[in-house]
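User: Good morning. I'm curious how cobalt (II) ion would be positioned relative to this chain. Could you predict the structure with it bound?
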Amino acid sequence: MEKNTSVPEDLTARLLLENKAWSEGILSQSPEFFHNLAKEQHPKFLWIGCSDSRVPAETVVNAKPGEIFVHRNIANQVITTDFNCLSVLQYAVAVLKVEHIIVCGHYGCGGIQAALSCENSGLMIANKWLLHIKDIYRLHQEELESLPSDQRNDRMIEFNVIEQVNNLAHTSMIQTEWRERNGPTLHGWVYGLENGLLKEIITIDQHSPMDRIYRFIN
Ligand code: CO
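Assistant: Good morning! Here's the predicted structure, ligand included:
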């Protein structure tokens, strides 16, 4: 490949070297690992997480390649006009038939913090993405503003995860799966940057109550 000498290559060269060592390490333990995995995937989980570099899906649950289907965006949102997230969701539930969907937020989320602040005029696209979170704040404003300020962000992060899990439940894709099979179960978790631990916030399935206005007929 032609080299662009203006781009320092040591950082990416390190990644390529690490990749080689990682691949060799796996092959030394399990010579057929990649060969077998290349044939097909059967992940049981869809993970919808934040893009934050400190919350890598597979790493924090010690999963191997092939175990988790992943979608990540700023502040782990499920926005029902976002075709990126919805196409991942559709493939995960209709084709892969995942058994569990995990929406994973994290304490100290910069996306949530930005949404609870005044908008930065230099980030017009990100502002639009985060506008949905301001709406969640408005929904829980009374409770949030009654909390000490150091607890407000953490509670907001939990409310956001709950809202995103509910957004999943309100899609026709999930309700169709619930009618046809015993799943998937929807989970909302929050990851602690300070301790590396996941906390369960909400779990819902086809038996959970849902407001009539969100139900699809048939
Ligand atoms: Co985040």
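Residues 1-39 form one domain. The chain has two domains: 1-39, 41-214.
Let me know if you'd like a different ligand tried.
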